[in-house]
Amino acid sequence: MKILNLYAGIGGNRKLWGDEHDITAVELNPSIAEIYKDYFPNDTVIVADAHQYLLDHFKEFDFIWSSPPCPTHSRMSNINSARGMTKYPDMGLYQEIVLLKHRFDGLWVVENVISYYDPLIEPKKVGNHYYWANFFIPNIEEPPRRIAHFDGVDTAQNIKDKEILYGYDLSKCDLSLTKKELALKNCVEPKTGLHILNTAIGAIPPIQEGLFA
Q1: 194, 117 in Cβ contact below 8 A?
Q2: 2-141+188-202 in CATH: which number?
Q3: pTM value?
Q4: Can you tell me the distance from the alpha carbon of 130 to that of 18, in angstroms, rounded to the nearest whole number?
Q5: Rounded CA separation 141/80 (Å)
Q6: Beta 2-6 vs 22-27: how paired, if at all?
Q7: Are 104 and 58 in contact (CB under 8 A)?
Q8: Looking at residue 208, what is its pLDDT?
Q9: Do 148 and 110 touch, CB atoms closer than 8 A?
Q10: How far apart are CA 143 and CA 178, in angstroms?
Q11: What letter does residue 59 receive in the DSSP assignment?
């Protein structure tokens, strides 16, 4: 199966997918893309704007996973707003959902955080995140997500805990502690990523009439 993995990060969602699929990963940050390459050398890794890449190439794949940037949708953005750093929610999230729902013939899923507002398009909550898809995703239990910097745990300990949780070692990569922590924080739980891929494979042919049935 040809898979497009957008906003790939260091590959949390892809961690347990194995190597039997033809996977193309798109990540904008070159340093993060290098970490992904080290862990998944059989994937095609492209350093590019995932939002534009989706528009240009979506017809070339069988299954698309997209994890658009989440900070402007997150409930944590309320804290930033209280500090005078209010931003518009990034509507690229909903642009991708609409595009995939109406223009893509394959299987797809869009992942994001649980938002501080009522979603404009109804998602399904799976584990600790929202998912939009054209196949039904059964729920899966995930460990609670600890909020970094606000729970009394320092950055280095957060990194160590998440490296153990997700199966990564970022000790040799050229990133600051803050960026390492963010890269790990942005990971989808690997078991959830595998759960969703396996569900998608079992859902062929995809449900085209709506998001969830």
Answers
A1: no
A2: 3.40.50.150
A3: 0.88
A4: 24
A5: 29
A6: parallel
A7: yes
A8: 46
A9: no
A10: 22
A11: G
